[in-house]
Amino acid sequence: MGSFSIWHWLVVLLVILLLFGGGKISGLMGDLAKGIKSFKANIKEDENDASMEAQAPATPPAGNIPGPQQGTTAAAQPQPQPGNRPAA
């Protein structure tokens, strides 16, 4: 009495089919299959991308952006001298 027999499961399946209908269940199974296929395809693409990155030669970037110039500042401000302090 602790486990269900095949007849119990068939009655449960019949009730589910009556509640949801055969078309809705087959549509859900089709959507599930599409999701699994899409997942597998994306996993293969990620593996291909990773192998391409490992095989790609290390080349420098195409453009050059100059860095800040030495000796020039945006606004020349006088620096305070250590001996010249204003009176407080």
Can I get a quick summary?
Keywords: Cell membrane, Membrane, Protein transport, Translocation, Transmembrane, Transmembrane helix, Transport. The chain has helices at residues 6-20, 22-55.
Explain this structure to me?
The protein has helices at 6-20, 22-55. It has a domain at 22-56. The N and C termini lie far apart (96 Å). It is an all-alpha fold. The radius of gyration is 36 Å and the shape is elongated. The longest helix has 34 residues, at 22-55. The chain crosses the membrane at residues 6-30. It holds the Pfam family TatA_B_E.
Q: What's the SSE pattern?
A: HH
Arithmetic mean of pLDDT: 78
Total helical segments: 2
Shape: elongated
Q: Report the portion of residues in β strands.
A: under 5%
Oligomer class:
single chain
How far apart lie the N and C ends? 96 Å
> What's the total count of β strands?
0
Helix content: 55-70%
Given the helix and strand composition, which structural class is it? mainly alpha
Radius of gyration: 36 Å
Low-confidence residue ranges: none
Largest sheet: none
Task: List strands and helices in order, with pairings.
Blueprint: H1 6-20, H2 22-55
Question: What attributes does this structure have?
Answer:
mainly alpha; 88 residues; 2 helices
